[in-house]
DNA sequence: AATCAGGCCTTCGCATGCAATATGTCTCGT
DNA sequence: ACGAGACATATTGCATGCGAAGGCCTGATT
C-alpha cells in the first residue's frame, strides 16, 4: 500500500509534459513559475498511475483511497477526477463513483482515427505556417528526446516522449484549439500505451519520426500524412483486450 | 442581481442537450433517469449564461458569486468550473481565479478548422456505417427541430438546436471518441454563437442542413463535406472581436 | 431452496470553515 | 509628487464533517 503512495507521488514529478522546460521556450531563461495546485498533481498522478498499470481499465477509482495515498483531502481529488472525466479518462456515474475508461479494440481504433484526423490537420496547418525549416526545430528536439528515451531503462519514458513528440506536432500547427483537444486525447493515449508497454512492436520506432520530419522539411504534405497514417495505424492493430485480461491475471508482469 | 439568479436557474432547465429525450432513443420508452448532480447543472448554467451574454469573454467568474446565484455551495461550482476548464470554456490561473474563454477572430477561425476536421471525419464514418438511409433518421429529426426552433421567439433556441444537429451528426458516426471530443467543442461553440445571436447572417440556414442530409442519403461523401465546409465556413468570416466590444459597451442590447 | 425484505456499511455529494494567495489602498519616507 | 512598504480586503485552495444514495449481507418467508 505504501508502495502505491510512493509510486503515485514519484510519478507526480514526471508527468506527461515532463520535458516542457527542455523543449519549450529556450530563449527566455526564467519561465514564469506557476504554482502547481494539488488538483493538477492529483490528475497527473492518476493518469501516471493508469499508464503504469496501477489502475487497470474499468477499475474503480475510490476518491478516499486516492486521497489517502496522495496524502491530501478528497476535494482536490474530486476536482481532478472531474477534469479527467471531461477528457474521457474516467467515466462517472452519479452516486456510484468513477471508473477508469474501458478499453476495447474498437474503441482504440476509433480513438486512433480521431487522433489521426487531428494530427493530419496539424500537419496541414504546420506546413501552412510562415517561416522556414527552423519552425520544426522543437519537433526535432522532441524526436531526439524520444531516441534518447528509447535507451533508458524505464519503459515508461519512451511513451512519455512519444506523447511529447506528437504534442509538439500539434503545437507547431499554431492552432491552440487543436493543441488543447490533443492534450485531452494524449492522456487517453497514455493510458492505452501504458498497457502496450512491454509489447514488442507496440512501441513506435524512431525512424518514423525522422521520416515525418523529412517530409515536413520538404513541404511534402501528402508524404507527411502518409507517414502519420502508418505511424498511428500501428497501434490500431494491437489487441488491447487480451492485453488487459492478461494484465489483470498477472498484475506484476 | 436576482435577475441573474433567475436567469441562471431558468437556463439550467434548458441545457445544450435540451432535446436529448426527443431526438434520442425513441424506442425505449423509459430511458434510465440519471440523477442530475449540482455539478452538471452548474456547468450547464454557466455555459448557458455565457451563451446568453450574461458572461462575456474574458470575464472573471467568481466562484462565490456563481454559487450564491445558483443557491448552492462553492464546491460543486468549483468542480463544474474544472470540468469546463478542460473543455476550454474557462481558463484558470491558480490563486487568481477562472475567466471565461477569450474570443479572437483568429481563435474562432482556428476552432472552426478543428471542428470542420472532426465533422468531416464524422461524415466519412457515418457513411461507412452499415445500414440504409434510416441511419440518418435522428439527424432528420434534429433538422426538423432546428427548423422549428427558428420560428421560436427565443433567439437562443436555434443555437441550441444547431448544436444538437451537429452533435447528432457526430453521434451517427458511431465513434464515441469523436462524439466526446465534439461535445467539448460544442460548449465553446455555444459561447461563441451566443455572441452572434442577433447578428443577421450569423445564424445558419436550414437549407444547409437539408443539403447535407441529401448528400448523406445519396452516399455522396464529397458533396456532404463540401456542404459542411460552406456551412461552417460561414462563422469563420464573422467579426467576433468587435462584436464583443460592442456587447461590452451595450450589455442590454 | 430460492427469493425478497430489511438493515448495515461503504462511498459519494455537498456545506461549512479555515489557511494561503493576490490585489487594492493607505501611509510614510524621500 | 512619487514610489516603496504595509495593512486590509477579496478570493481562491484545501480540509473536515454530515447527510444521502447505492451495494451487500443477513435472515425471514414462501
Compile the SSE list and pairings.
Two copies of one chain form a homodimer.
Chain A: H1 2-12, H2 20-23, H3 38-51, E1 60-61, H4 63-70, H5 74-85, E2 90-93, E3 97-100, H6 105-128, H7 137-151, H8 156-172, H9 176-196, H10 206-217, H11 221-236, H12 240-249
Antiparallel strand pairs in A: 1-3, 2-3
Chain B binds a DNA duplex (30 and 30 nucleotides) through residues 35, 37-39, 62-64, 72-76, 78, 94-98.
Q: Can you describe this structure?
A:
The structure is a homodimer of 253-residue chains. Chain A is built from twelve helices and three strands. Chain A has 253 residues and is mainly α. The first copy, chain A, folds into two domains: 2-100, Winged helix-like DNA-binding domain superfamily/Winged helix DNA-binding domain (Arc Repressor Mutant, subunit A, Orthogonal Bundle), CATH 1.10.10.10; 105-249, GntR ligand-binding domain-like (Four Helix Bundle (Hemerythrin (Met), subunit A)). Chain A has a three-stranded antiparallel sheet with strand order 1-3-2. In chain A, β2 (90-93) and β3 form a beta hairpin. In chain A, α3 packs across α5 (74-85). The longest helix of chain A is centred in the middle third of the chain and has 24 residues, at 105-128. The first copy, chain A, starts with a helix and ends with a helix. The model of chain A is unreliable at 1-28 (pLDDT under 50). At the A-B interface, α5, α6 and α9 of A face α5, α6 and α9 of B. Chain B binds a DNA duplex (30 and 30 nucleotides) through α5.
Amino acid at each position: 500500500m505504501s508502495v502505491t503512495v510512493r509510486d503515485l507521488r514519484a510519478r507526480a514529478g514526471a508527468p506527461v509534459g515532463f520535458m516542457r522546460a527542455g523543449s519549450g521556450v529556450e530563449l527566455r531563461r526564467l519561465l514564469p513559475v506557476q504554482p502547481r495546485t494539488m488538483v493538477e498533481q492529483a490528475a497527473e498522478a492518476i493518469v501516471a498511475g493508469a499508464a503504469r498499470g496501477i489502475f487497470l481499465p474499468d477499475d474503480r477509482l475510490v476518491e478516499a483511497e486516492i486521497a489517502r495515498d496522495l496524502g491530501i483531502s478528497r476535494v482536490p481529488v474530486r476536482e481532478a477526477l472531474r477534469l479527467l472525466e471531461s477528457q474521457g479518462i474516467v467515466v462517472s456515474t452519479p452516486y456510484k463513483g468513477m471508473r477508469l475508461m474501458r478499453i476495447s479494440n474498437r474503441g482504440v481504433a476509433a480513438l486512433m482515427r480521431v487522433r489521426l484526423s487531428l494530427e493530419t490537420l496539424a500537419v496541414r496547418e504546420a506546413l501552412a505556417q510562415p517561416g522556414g525549416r527552423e519552425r520544426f526545430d522543437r519537433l526535432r528536439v522532441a524526436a531526439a528526446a524520444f531516441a534518447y528515451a528509447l535507451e533508458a531503462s524505464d519503459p515508461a519514458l519512451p511513451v512519455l516522449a512519444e506523447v511529447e513528440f506528437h504534442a509538439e506536432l500539434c503545437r507547431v500547427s499554431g492552432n491552440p484549439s487543436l493543441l488543447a483537444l490533443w492534450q485531452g486525447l494524449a492522456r487517453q493515449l497514455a493510458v492505452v500505451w501504458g498497457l502496450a508497454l512491454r509489447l514488442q512492436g507496440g512501441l513506435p520506432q524512431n525512424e518514423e519520426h525522422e521520416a515525418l520530419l523529412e517530409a515536413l522539411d520538404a513541404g511534402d504534405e501528402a508524404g507527411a500524412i502518409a507517414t502519420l497514417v502508418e505511424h498511428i495505424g500501428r497501434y490500431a492493430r494491437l489487441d488491447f483486450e487480451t492485453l488487459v485480461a492478461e494484465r489483470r491475471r498477472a498484475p506484476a508482469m
